Amino acid sequence: MDEKEHFERLNQYYEKSKIGYDFALWGSKHFGFYPKGKKISEKEAQILMQELVAKKLELTSKDLVLDAGCGQGVVSTFLAKNYRCKIEGITVVPFEVQKAKLLAEQLGVSDTVNYSLMDYSKTEFKNNHFDCVYTTETLSHSIDIRKTLKEFFRMLKKGGRVAFFEYTLAEDKDFSKSEMKILDKVARGSAMDGLKDFRHDKFQDVLSESGFINIKVENISENAGPSLARLRKFAMIPYYLIVKPFGLQEKSPNVSAAVELYNMAEKGLIRYNIFTATK
After folding, report:
1. Which among 66, 245, 86, 211 is positioned nearest to 139, based on CA atoms?
2. Cα–Cα distances in Å, from 63 out to 47, 52, 86, 219?
3. Measuring CA to CA, which residue among 231, 241, 238 is closest to residue 261?
4. pLDDT (mean) for 82-100
5. 40 — pLDDT class (breaks 50, 70, 90)
């Protein structure tokens, strides 16, 4: 795959999605966590998901943490403010670095977070540098997930922890032809070129091959479902009036994903997982 073309598409995707993410998710790029049987707002669910990152990493104020694919800094600034850990946030999208730095200043955590323009598959950090590495729905943008995981492993201290909040897919044969066609268009439009490397009950094997141990996976699709249902409500009218009739799924990946991926998730074809492991 052409790396330059991939990064161009990735930047184009996030550039044209800025307003949508700010409007629907307050600048974050992850789903919320809804406890079973408890009615809460999306904003509260977003905070619970961020707290879950800290919980799964067993985060302390002594930790040096890598946010791999930090977006606009929503998760990292939350963790820095509430857990007083030091965080390096990296992204390949230039405007995100500036927005993340501004958010850190606004929240008073500029002394404990730093943001850089960097590819998480090829970083400038030293060996055995970080206590923790996490991602929140960013690993599907990797065009070589094994290379990315090896880079995480290299940077992580012995005994260091990782937590990946990511999607997995059923096997291709479980999707209908129309579902697969739409999935491919959404993945292409959002530069999720590595999405098909994440398969149900198999991604933990990829982690193991990369050297990680104590691997655990938790399916939290039911808890993230209300977030996707909320986005689906926003997307229904434009999708069925404009996007679907004119075959614009690749050009409108977020609208398409909100509707079509919701339907696929309801069938169990897509899951939302937390993967944890140590070095």
Report:
1. 66
2. 20, 16, 6, 26
3. 231
4. 98
5. very high
